[in-house]
Amino acid sequence: MSLLVVGSVALDSVKTPFGEATDVLGGSGTYFSVAAGFFNRVNLVAVVGNDFPGEHLELLKGHDIDLAGLKTQPGKTFRWKGEYGFQLNEAKTLETHLNVFESFRPELPDAFRTPNLVFLANIDPELQLEVLHQVKRPRLVACDTMNFWIEGKREALIRTLREVDVVIINDGEARELAGEANLVKAARNILDLGPKTLIIKRGEYGVLMFSGGTVFSAPAFPLESVFDPTGAGDSFAGGFMGYLARQGLHEESLRCPPVTGLPFDEAVIRRAVIIGSVMASFNVESFSLDRMKTLTFEEIQARYKEFQQMTSFEDLLH
């Protein structure tokens, strides 16, 4: 199935208690595409400056990513500088230089306008709507957002949420969007805005999925070494959407059961959540995309099985 993502491609400078990296490959569209590329070809729409290193382009091409929608404009690439303390769930932004990303207006190539699945990464909700106006109705649309848009462009964000099937955000964003501290109540409020499924990322505490009156919880994978959480949420989304796209290639027909309201049954959606968690767990093991460069599909399968063993338990005996 064709998979489209619209997001940012950036150069990041990151410092954590375990080291630092300067001007390394980053951006929501980047992390999503590389993670999804392990499962399905990805059509990426983004913008970079003419200072963007050619080696990064080669990395993206090597992960089954179609770059026909990646535009190069005169100027500098979007740059972000951040720092994490030992509480790795939240970054402190030190500098943001939008550069060419400030005037980004996504224009989809003709070949990208009939996608089966769409992921609207963390960009201005008005731009997210522009993307949806350029495509024929996909089978599934998912989106991300952040506190900046919740606070500054709430009305546009609400309009976007009416058009999407799945929302993938973190717990702080869910609470602010819903105006509710309790995540279960917050989820109900967000689903009332239009989405069929809400996935709440909780960092080291795992993931909660609310869909069709059901709740699914997955833990975070216990890691000895966590070097850089940057891009973990986008890697989760990439694994989640990439797996769904891969499943679509192998299923004779996509069902739309009333339980989820999505064109995949609940078992497939739950497996996709675990795959997303697997990809996020690998991403944080090194800075930037360094771990993804060496990651193999066999390692992904092995960690998926570890998730199965970690969460398996028997029925209660009478």
Your description of this structure?
With 318 residues, the protein is of the alpha/beta class. The chain has one domain (3-311): UDP-N-acetylmuramoyl-L-alanine:D-glutamate ligase, CATH 3.40.1190.20. 36% of the residues lie in helices and 24% in strands. It contains 11 helices and 13 strands. The chain has helices spanning 28-36, 54-61, 125-133, 147-152, 154-161, 171-178, 183-191, 232-250, 266-283, 290-294, 297-311; strands at residues 3-6, 10-16, 19-26, 42-49, 65-73, 79-83, 92-97, 117-120, 140-143, 166-170, 197-201, 207-211, 214-218. Strands 5-4-1-8-9-10-11-12-13 form a 9-stranded mixed sheet, sandwiched between helices. The protein has a 4-stranded mixed sheet with strand order 3-2-6-7. α3 links the parallel β8 and β9 (140-143). The longest helix has 19 residues, at 232-250. The chain is globular and about 70 Å long.
